[in-house]
Design goal:
Length: about 500
Amino acid sequence: MPRLAVRDGRITADPPPGARPVDLGGCCVVPGFNDAHVHFPTWSLGLRQVRLEGVDSRAEAVARVADALPSVAPGGWLRGLGWRDATWVEPPHRAVLDAVAPDVPVALMSRDYHSLWLNSAALSRAGGDLDAPGGVVERDERGEPIGVLRENAAWRFRDLHSLPSLGEMIEASREGLRVAASRGVTAIHDKDGWMGSFEVFQHLHARDELTLRVWQSQPADRLPHLRAVGLRSGFGDDMLRLGYLKLFMDGTLGSATARLLDGSGVELTSRERLEEVVREAAAAGWPVAVHAIGDGANRAALDAFEASAGAWHPLGLRQRIEHAQLLDAAELPRFAEAGVAASVQFSHAPSDRDLADRFWEGHQGAYAYGALLEHGARLANGSDAPVEELDPLKGIVAGVLRTLDERPPWRPEQAVTFEQALHATCIEPAWLARDERRRGTLAPGMLADLVILDRDPAGCPPEELNQVKVLATMVGGSFTFVSDPPFWV
Ligand SMILES: [Zn+2]
């Protein structure tokens, strides 16, 4: 019977004297899950917002907004997220929101976070100042904004007018930490540095409330400030560290703004500009995570990392491309060759399958996780929560099964094995955070970050994978979650 002992927050080969043995029966212990791509405060806030995932029509979305209106505090915003209008007959428009919410400002973020649907009360906050380079303001035939902003225009409006307060983010993240622990999450790579999540985590950490390890992003355009203060990647402690710079090459599949090799889509950062950013970041001690969805954006990003390799490779910086959703076959070996990790989301493949079949018809390299592994790429897995749920087991299952419903697996040749999915959810994210000698596996000397599951997912039939449950979660030797009743009863 295999044994695992914990002492002083670490895994040890032998139980210390007086240790309390626990027989786990048929349960299974795996390394703690590290979600490599989370918008943590945003996801936490979303636990309480109007959710529009799976809403099939504009009318249904408006009805949900109407239902939620009474809960809005006086003077507050009604915020929602998760809509996807690709299959709606009627497109989003401010007038239908105005009909139910004439006074309360309403801001509804799309599922991919690249489009914002506003009512007139919200729009009026901008006083007509809506345009932004790399942004789209949808207008009617008279030139009036219809209440839909995309890309930079959406983000600029949100940043200037509809962001939640620090207090709201802290409060929501407290609840988020509890939910994350119940799902076996022991570490995250956060992407919300731009909206102040580092400050949120610092507040929680100072009160001993931070129950997972954070590798924090900062927007790349803050580099001059970080340099001025002398902050380099890695600053922090065991629980909370500044990690990497984040920027965007293109838009998304759902908003039809992904940059493709045929020239379609939106270019948010050029190949040349990314190369400059990577060089400047390296000189200041920072790796870069760049969002790239389309095959054109991915080629440009890899070109930029390659062209700047002399500046960062000798420093051992752990560069990454976020999403890598559509890849031309020529790019598959380039991740390993360039030493750039593919930070992907297994759960996106089955949930995006219909959109991908439609928008990227005839493209073979969509969500090509199996092929990336075959070509030696480092593959890290995340949820992109709140785009998908912050639930690593669900992500792992999506990577293995490539389906979420009764339909047969989507492009099953790109499926990964359970072991590969676990590797991408534990080991590679730890490597990206320069933690490979401290966590990601259950070897003696490693931090005791682990999850107890009710059965062995590697040994159970595929159709049972969806039923695997987290019984307990441990971070640094302390339980952050124990199911009720506890597993040792
Ligand atoms: Zn994201």
